[in-house]
Amino acid sequence: MKKYLIVTLFITTMLAASWTTKSSSEKTTHAKAVDEKWIENTISQMTLEEKVAMIHAQSKFSSPGVPRLGIPEVWCDDGPHGVRPETLWDAWASANWANDSCTAFPALTCLAATWDRELAALYGKSVGEEARYRGKTVLLGPGVNILRTPLNGRNFEYMGEDPYLASQMVVPYVQGVQSNGVSACVKHFALNNQEHKRHETNVSIDDRTLYEIYLPAFKAAVVDGGVWSVMGAYNLIGGEWCCENAHLLKDILKGEWGFDGVLMTDWGAVKSTEKCASNGLDLEYGTHTNGLDANVKNAYDSYCLARPYLEKLRTGELPESDLNDKVRRILRLELRTNMDRMRPFGRFTCPDHYAVARRIGAEGIVLLKNDNCRLPIKADAKKIVVLGENAIKPFTPGGGSSSLKVQHEVSIFDGIKAAFPNAEVVFERGYVGQPKHGSKTYNYGQYDLSDSRTPDRLTADAVAAVADADYVIFVGGLNKSRYQDTEGDDRKSMDLPYGQDAVIEAIAAVRPDMIYVNVSGNPVGMPWADKVDAILQDWYLGSEAGNSLADVLSGAVCPSGKLPFTIPVALEDGPIKSREQYPGIKDDDGIWQESYSEGVFVGYRWFQSKGVKPRFPFGYGLSYTTFEYGQARASSKKMGSSITISVPVKNTGSVAGAEVVQLYIHDAEASVERPEQELKGFEKVWLAPGECKTVKITFDRSALSFFDAASHNWIAEKGEFEARIGSSSDDIRSTVRFTL
Ligand code: BGC
Question: What is the pLDDT, as a whole number, of residue 437?
C-alpha cells in the first residue's frame, strides 16, 4: 500500500525516505582547493578601485587583473565546440589574426549522442588544450539547457532532453577542460531553453519541474564536476533577470550547491547595479556592447559593476563585503588557472585533436533506419551519387557565438570521395538553401555556393543523376542560417527547409533504396521516412565532419550513437500546446510571459505518459550488428543503499560494435504524477562478434526520488519500483521489480 498524499512534512518524513537538498555533503563541490589565506591577504591589500576594476570587462572578452600585485587579466572565449577566433578589442568582428584557426569538435548534441563518458572527458581535455594554448582563462561552455522544444535555435549546442544524460556527459567534459588549468563555464543558467525573445522572456515554473528537469545538469557540473565558472542566462525567472536573481544565484547555486567559483553574466544580461551587487553576480561582461550592432565605445566605465557601483560603495550605500566576495571568487579562478604554475602548456590543431574530433563524430552518428541492410556501403561500389547542399556546405562558420574559424573542415562530399577511392562519386545539388556565408561580424569562412537553377530544374537534375548509381545518398537537414540551428532566434517549424521534402519524395520515387543523411542539431520532420531505406542522424561534426560520416557509411566504424532527444512525427505531438507555454504572451512591459505548465513532462516523459508514438524515441539507434539481452538480475530486491543490475549482452552479429545499455526506473505507484519511466543509468559496452559481457549498472535512492516542492526535499517513497533495461526508451528488454 503505497499511495498516499503528502499532507504535511511530518507525514512525509514518516513514510518516505527523504533528504534535504541543503545537506552538508552537497555544500562541498569537487572544485580544486586553493590557498584561501593568500586570497584574503591579497584582498586586504587591494584598493576599492582595484577591486571594482576586476569585476567587469575591459574589452569584449577580457577583464583586468591587478598589475600592481601581479594578478593577470582574465581572458574568456567561446566555446563550446572549439576556441572562437580573436575578435577586435571592442567589437565582435574578427581581429583577422593569422594564428587562431582552431580544431572544430563535433557539436555537443553529437557528444551527448555517443553516451560515452570517456569521450566527453577526451573532448573536454582536447578543447581545453586548445583554449590553454590560445591563452584563455575561461572557455565559455558547455551549455546544458534542456531541449524543451525542437524549435530552439541553440539546441545543437546542448546535450539533449534528459537531465540524467546531460549530467553524466557534462561532468567529464568540465573536468577534461579544467585539467588544463582553463575554466569551463557552464551556461546558460537557467531556463534559457529558447532563443526567440531570449532577452525578454519571463519563465514561470514550479519548483518540482525546475529541480527535476532543468537544474540537474548544472548541479552535476558544479557539485560533481567542480566547475570554476557558470554563466547566467538572459531571460527572467519568476520576474527576476537570471543574472540578478537572488534565489537562483544565492539560494540555489551558491547556497544549496556550495558553488565557490565565478558567476558571470551572459554578454549584456544585466540591468541594475543594486541587484548585480547584491544578488550573487560576480563578473559582468557585454553590457551596452550587447548584440551585434549596438556597440558603444568605452562603455566599460558605466557598467553596472563599474563606476555606478564604485560610487555606491564610496558612499556606503552598498557594502564592501559583497564586493570582497566577488573578488575572492575571481582570485580563486586566477589561482586555478592563470596563476597555476603547474598547468600544462596546451596544444593546438595537432593530429590527435583531429583524431578525437573524427572519433567523437563517428561515434555520435545515429543510424535511425537501415532496411535491406542498405548500409554499410560495399567496398566494391562503382558509382555513388551524393545529393543535397549540406554535402558541400561548411558549417563551422555559422551558428552565432559558437561559430569557429578552422584550419580545415572536411565536407561530407569530400569525406565520401576519400573513403571510396575506387568509386565514381558524383555530386548533384537537389536544392539550394543558404548558399552564401560572409558577414561583417564573422569575417572568415566566406563561401559562395550559389546556383541559378530553378527548384524544378534542380529536382529534375537530381532525379536524372541517380538512375545508374549503386548508392544514392541525400545529405539534407538544417544549417546554421537564421531560423535554423543558430543563436538569436528559433526555427519557425519542425519541417525541413528549402523544399527538401519534395526533392526527397521525387528521388525516393525512383530510388527507394536511397540513404538520407540528416545534418542538424534538432529533431526534424521526416514525412517520407517510410519511403527510404536508410536514415542517419548526422550532426554538426566540425573539422572532420566528412570523414566521420564516411567512416560510418563505409563500415570502418560500426554506428553506436543513440538519440539524446525524441524525434516526434509532428511538432504538435509534443508537450507544447499553447502560446502561454511558448513563445509566451507579451505583457504591457514588453516581457513575454511564458509558463512551463507541461511540468516534468518534457521529451520522452511526455510521449510515454500520453501514449503518443514518436517517429524515433529517445535513446534509440541501430547498429550494423545485433545485440541479444539476457535476463537482468538485481543484487537485491530491496533497496538498501544501492542496487546493482546485471544484464548479459551478446553481440549476435558478424561485426564488432557497441551497445548503450539503458536503465529506466518506473515508480509503480506514487503520490504524485510521475513520468512512466526515467533514465537513471547507462553503460556503453564494446563487443566482438559472438562476445558476451555482463553489464552492471548501479543506482541508489536518488534514482527513485521526485522533488517535493512543499518540503523542498527529494522524496523516494516506499513501495514497488521497476528497473527496466532497454536498448532505447521504447525498447525495454528486461525488467526487475524491487521495493523500497
Ligand atoms: C551567448 C553566450 C556567449 C556570449 C559571448 C552570448 O550572446 O549567449 O553563449 O558565450 O555571447 O560570445
Answer: 80
Q: Are 400 and 426 in contact (CB under 8 A)?
A: no
Residue 732's φ and ψ, nearest 5 degrees, are -85, 125
In a mutational test of the pocket of ligand 1, which residue from 60, 63, 78 has the highest number of ligand atoms less than 8 Å from its CB?
78
C-alpha span between 86 and 98 (Å, rounded) = 10
For residue 418, with 0-12 CB atoms within 10 Å meaning exposed, 13-18 middle and 19 or more buried, which class applies? middle
Distant-in-sequence, close-in-space partners of 97: CB < 8 Å, separation ≥ 6 = 85, 86
The CA-atom distances, in angstroms, between 476 and each of 143, 268, 358, 430, 736 are 25, 35, 20, 9, 42
Q: Please choose, from the candidates 216, 197, 284, the residue with its C-alpha nearest in 3D space to the C-alpha of residue 256.
A: 216
Is 266 designated active site?
A: yes
Residues 179 and 182: their CA atoms lie apart, in Å, by 7
Mutate to test the pocket of ligand 1, among 401, 441, 442 (most ligand atoms within 8 A of CB): 401
Does residue 212 line the site of ligand 1, with CB under 6 A?
no
What is the distance in A from the centroid of ligand 1 to the CA of 451? 33
Ligand 1 contact via 676 beta carbon (within 6 Å): no
Answer for the pair 320, 313: CB distance below 8 angstroms, yes or no. yes
How far from 70 is each of 66, 246, 339, 413, 592, CA to CA, in Å?
6, 33, 9, 51, 46
Instruction: Give the closest residue (by CA) to ligand 1 atom 2.
Output: 266
pLDDT (tens digit, 9 = 90+) per residue, 229-248? 999 999 999 999 999 999 99
CA distance to 311, 375, 377, per residue, from 423 (Å): 72, 16, 11
The verdict on whether omega for the bond into residue 216 sits within 30 degrees of 0, i.e. cis, is: no
Cα 141 to ligand 1 centre (Å): 9
Backbone angles phi, psi at 145, to 5 degrees: -70, 140
- DSSP-derived secondary structure for 306-358: SHHHHHHHHTTSS-HHHHHHHHHHHHHHHHHTTT-TTS-----S-HHHHHHHH
Hey, what's the cell of 64? 583586468
Whether the pTM exceeds 0.90: the reply is yes
CA of residue 191 to ligand 1 center, whole Å: 15
Q: Is 92 in the pocket of ligand 1 (CB under 6 A)?
A: no
Q: Is the CB of 187 under 6 A from ligand 1?
A: yes
Q: Is the peptide bond before 435 cis (omega within 30 degrees of 0)?
A: no
What's the pLDDT tens digit per position in 123-158? 999 999 999 999 999 999 999 999 999 999 999 999
Nearest CA to ligand 1 atom 4: 267
Residue 477, SS3? strand
CA separation for the pair 280, 115 (Å, rounded): 34
Residues in CB range of 419: below 8 A, 6 or more apart = 547, 550, 551, 553, 554, 556
Ligand 1 atom closest to residue 84's alpha carbon, by position in its atom list? 12
Q: Which one from 77, 78, 162, 266 is the annotated catalytic residue?
A: 266
Burial category of 208 from C-beta neighbours within 10 Å (exposed 0-12, middle 13-18, buried 19 and up):
middle
